[in-house]
Fold:
Amino acid sequence: MFHESSLRGKKRMTSKFVVSLFTALLVFAISVLPAAAATPEKTVNASATLAFNLKGLAHNVVVQKAYIADKYVYVTQRSGGNCHLSRLLIDGTDATFVDKMTITNTGHCQTLDMYTYNGVNYFYFSSKADPSTTYYWSLQVARVQYQAGTTLDYTDLHRFTYMNYANKNGTRLGETYRVDGGGNSNYTLFRVQTTEGTVTWSIYDTVALNKLLDSNEQVQMNSTAAKNAAVSSFTQSGSNIVRPNGSFQGLDMLDKTKIFTSGGGDGQTPQIAMMTGSGTYKTLVKITNVGNREIEGVQTKDGRVYFTIVPDPTNKQNTQKIYYVPDTIF
Structure:
């Protein structure tokens, strides 16, 4: 038989246990809840228009990024940390494989954006694979000219390094985790994600950067010259990161005033977000007529915003498609 004092002690212990258990369950529940997402000023549902069927690709893997030029569509496909850059001839709504080049140890192959500098067409391209990551994220951005039938290594290319210093002030952002880039003949855009979880978007003068690449195989982004080429930058963290569907599948920029980024894997509604050049989240567009399939890349061209869809995750050599929506809906 228990004394009254022992019963009171038991009750206090039981109460403490219940409170502790409740607290633990609450913490666990919070930890598994999805992170809050950045909120756009407006959300639009849109039907996309087919631009091109990609035919005869040399590899049965996803197109990470497509770039539509005048006569050709260029696409990247990843094999491990190596990247195949292919050229497809446009004929109506078909773009058919012609030839390719390969660049080794480049990473995820997500960067592919053509620009003109001193009368020559170049691509900004993925560079320096990180083999310690599952998806071989790229740690640098390089400059490359298309050369059919060749194989190069990323170390053969002139490229931007120390990308964790790519911002207006040239200060250290953290440890580099994942890098992408693009832009146009006037302005260059870099997206740098750190292991600390931040995402920094930085805009540079394209001509100024390429003058540095002319005379330097490696342009360090913490150098005074690189810092002087910077136009603007902003950093996002936590729920403020603009990442449609919680993923990052590509970027492009219109002039220096509008930044586009896509997101969504197989089973999700493809989405494209638009921010201002200073990071204000303006518009989220949900593509409603292409199925819940993975979206890859984004490109602005002639009043349209293009993107690639992977309709058949098994057979990718003849089924991947490029669609577009008008940029006015953003």
